[in-house]
Amino acid sequence: MIALDRTKANPWVLKTPPGTAEYTMFVEEKDGLRVLVCTVGKTVLLYDARCISDLHAMLKAVGGWVELGGSDEQKPAKEGTVEAWGRSLNNPIGGWYGLKKSLRGRFGVYVPPLMEALGLCELEHNPKNNRMRAMEAA
Fold it and tell me: Over the range 98-124, which residues count as b (16 or more CB within 10 Å of their CB) and which as e?
């Protein structure tokens, strides 16, 4: 079982894969759903917390490196990337893991560092074009 137990009072403090921006994440319940609350500056993004176990399962099934491909909701995601999977009708929830209209994207930017902090993936930290791959659950 993946321990998603951080609260607003004790969030994860993370950095984007290139290490250029810091942000926080914690878990709370909204409308009966466990959500990841991601705060970047004054912007708050919400992701279905189920994305962590679902993305880990997808990465394990792929068995190799997957490009992150983070992009805003208004821009198309590059096929075959974590970002594209996070909005695909073919993922386990059948669409966007991002929950806040107009701020549903950037899944491939903000979720992978949390997975790395949880010991679920290996993540590259290059200036751009980063990738990730599954590790066994810690």
Answer: bbbeebbbbbbbbbbbbbbbbebbebb
Residues contacting 129, CB < 8 A, separation 6+ = 67
Q: What is the dihedral of CA 18, 80, 44, 48, to 10 degrees?
A: -130
Residue 114, classed as helix, strand or coil, is helix
Q: What is the model's pTM?
A: 0.94
Quickly count: other Cβ atoms within 10 Å of residue 26's Cβ: 18
What are the residue boundaries of the structural domains of the chain, listed by start? 12-134
| pLDDT, tens only, 27-75 | 999 999 999 999 999 999 999 999 999 999 999 999 999 999 989 899 9
Contacts of 13 (CB under 8 A, 6+ apart): 22, 23, 24
> Helix, strand, or coil here: 12?
strand
